[in-house]
């Protein structure tokens, strides 16, 4: 009987401790804490050369409709607008004189109920490489040289080589035909 009494008292104490904590989480303050907590900014691409552009996304503003973002790497202030749901989107251009480094991004919601931070990495300029074949070399004469070569056709050297190969082919066919026509001698 005594163990039943102790079990009952322990359940009441546990319920008393858990009730205020669950009531605090279920109250309206939980919704406000989402808007007041610091958020993050996603940056695409996260590594960019000076003069490049990045896309910024955040959902730190909750139901806010706009925000502003700044960074020492940006050429000007980024202005966020609603993209869908609770997400805000902005575009930003990296300063052309930005040194290679990691730069912090600060976003402040227009209504003052949210803030977010993120990072963008500025990298050195890479050497540009063509993504498709390029007509290069000789300036404007490259096109003229190509047209002249197409009009001339094969030269004397190619003609002599072709005639030699043709003669070898004729001799091979004649030799093979002559061997087939001989009667078999036993």
UniProtKB/TrEMBL annotation:
<feature type="signal peptide">
    <location>
        <begin position="1"/>
        <end position="26"/>
    </location>
</feature>
<keyword id="KW-1133">Transmembrane helix</keyword>
<keyword id="KW-0732">Signal</keyword>
<feature type="region of interest" description="Disordered">
    <location>
        <begin position="28"/>
        <end position="54"/>
    </location>
</feature>
<feature type="transmembrane region" description="Helical">
    <location>
        <begin position="159"/>
        <end position="178"/>
    </location>
</feature>
<keyword id="KW-0472">Membrane</keyword>
<protein>
    <recommendedName>
        <fullName>Secreted protein</fullName>
    </recommendedName>
</protein>
<keyword id="KW-0812">Transmembrane</keyword>
């Amino acid at each position: 009987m005594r163990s039943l009494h102790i079990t009952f008292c322990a359940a009441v104490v546990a319920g008393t401790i858990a009730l205020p904590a669950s009531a605090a989480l279920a109250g309206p303050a939980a919704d406000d804490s989402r808007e007041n907590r610091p958020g993050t900014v996603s940056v695409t691409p996260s590594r960019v050369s000076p003069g490049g552009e990045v896309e910024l996304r955040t959902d730190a503003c909750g139901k806010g409709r706009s925000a502003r973002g700044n960074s020492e790497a940006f050429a000007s202030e980024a202005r966020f607008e609603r993209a869908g749901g609770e997400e805000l989107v902005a575009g930003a251009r990296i300063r052309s004189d930005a040194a290679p480094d990691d730069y912090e991004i600060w976003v402040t919601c227009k209504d003052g109920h949210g803030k977010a931070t993120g990072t963008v990495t500025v990298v050195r300029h890479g050497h540009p490489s063509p993504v498709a074949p390029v007509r290069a070399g000789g300036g404007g004469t490259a096109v003229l040289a190509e047209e002249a070569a197409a009009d001339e056709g094969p030269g004397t050297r190619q003609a002599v080589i072709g005639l030699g190969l043709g003669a070898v082919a004729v001799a091979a066919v004649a030799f093979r035909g002559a061997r087939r026509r001989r009667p078999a001698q036993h």
